[in-house]
């Protein structure tokens, strides 16, 4: 079994668990003032972490709900067991599972799975990006004015002025629309698929972005931080685009 097929199979198992939980249970807890977590986030993470520990016991893991497994290893798995928990908890049908693998500083593979639509987005460095059996390519939208883009807001939105509101208002007026769908990993997969022309956000975590970022790169898109400088999963201000509108978007964010 390759590492990619392992990640795909594991994401599918976690997806089944999410669908099952959606039909049965809906207990929510607050992690902070606005961030909810459900028992399904934890169950999904336990399933994924257990699978990695069984199959790759020497690999390190960083997962959102506390599944940090330290190992002296160049391999690090970045796991978001349920991206879009707020949506999930309210029954809004836009959430995903995100699994990425890095070797030292290099992203090797990324999988984002939308179990409701049975869309499995996957990418391997140098081998392209896919949705199920279909090769992905970013859009050819040439200008910001003709684009549909997406963003998100941090959980500490209400307590800080650096919360993306000004940028959101500006971009809403200069594009054909800004979507705030609530799963950064799936937003990035949609950029890779050409359904969105760009996504920008701040205060994202490595488990939110790593898999989706590789999807965008392998679909021919561009990644940077908000200033246009090189981005890595530990940089919390991401711009991911089809490449063609990237500079215009960076300039608009910086105003
Ligand atoms: C959140 C989602 C959301 C983004 C937040 C993330 P979670 O992740 O990706 O779209 O705006 O910044 O924290 O908590 O649902 O896994
Ligand atoms: Ca997340
Ligand atoms: Ca999550
Ligand atoms: Ca969360």
Automatic annotation (TrEMBL):
The keyword Oxidoreductase does not apply. CDD domains: IMPase. It holds the Pfam family Inositol_P. One of its GO terms (biological process) is signal transduction. Belongs to the inositol monophosphatase superfamily. This is Inositol-1-monophosphatase. Keywords: Hydrolase, Magnesium, Metal-binding. It comes from the Bacteria. InterPro entries: IMPase (IPR033942), Inositol_monoP_metal-BS (IPR020583), Inositol_monophosphatase-like (IPR000760), Inositol_monophosphatase_CS (IPR020550), Inositol_monophosphatase_SuhB (IPR022337). Its EC number is 3.1.3.25. The keyword Cell membrane does not apply. Mg(2+) binds at residues 64, 80, 82-83, 208. GO terms for molecular function: inositol monophosphate 1-phosphatase activity; metal ion binding. Its cofactor is Mg(2+). It is an enzyme of class 3 (hydrolase). It catalyses: a myo-inositol phosphate + H2O = myo-inositol + phosphate.
């Amino acid at each position: 079994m390759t590492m990619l097929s392992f990640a795909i199979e594991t994401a599918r198992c976690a997806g089944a668990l999410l669908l099952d939980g959606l039909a049965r249970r809906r207990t929510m807890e607050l992690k902070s003032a606005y961030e909810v977590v459900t028992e399904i986030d934890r169950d999904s993470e336990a399933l994924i972490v257990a699978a990695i520990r069984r199959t790759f016991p020497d690999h390190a893991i960083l997962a959102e709900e506390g599944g940090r497994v330290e190992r002296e290893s160049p391999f690090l798995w970045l796991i978001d067991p349920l991206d879009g928990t707020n949506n999930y908890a309210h029954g809004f049908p836009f959430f995903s599972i995100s699994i990425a693998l890095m070797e030292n500083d290099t992203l090797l593979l990324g999988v984002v799975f939308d179990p409701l639509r049975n869309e499995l987005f996957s990418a391997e460095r140098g081998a392209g990006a896919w949705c199920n059996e279909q090769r992905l390519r970013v859009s050819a939208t040439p200008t910001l004015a003709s684009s549909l883009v997406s963003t998100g807001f941090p959980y500490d939105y209400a307590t800080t002025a650096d919360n993306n509101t000004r940028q959101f208002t500006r971009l809403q007026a200069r594009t054909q629309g800004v979507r705030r769908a609530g799963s950064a990993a799936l937003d990035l997969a949609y950029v890779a698929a050409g359904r969105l022309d760009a996504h920008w956000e701040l205060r994202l975590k490595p488990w939110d972005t790593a898999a989706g970022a590789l999807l965008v790169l392998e679909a021919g898109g561009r990644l940077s931080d908000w200033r246009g400088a090189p981005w890595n999963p530990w940089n919390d201000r991401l711009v991911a685009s089809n490449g063609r509108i990237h500079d215009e978007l960076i300039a608009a964010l910086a105003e």
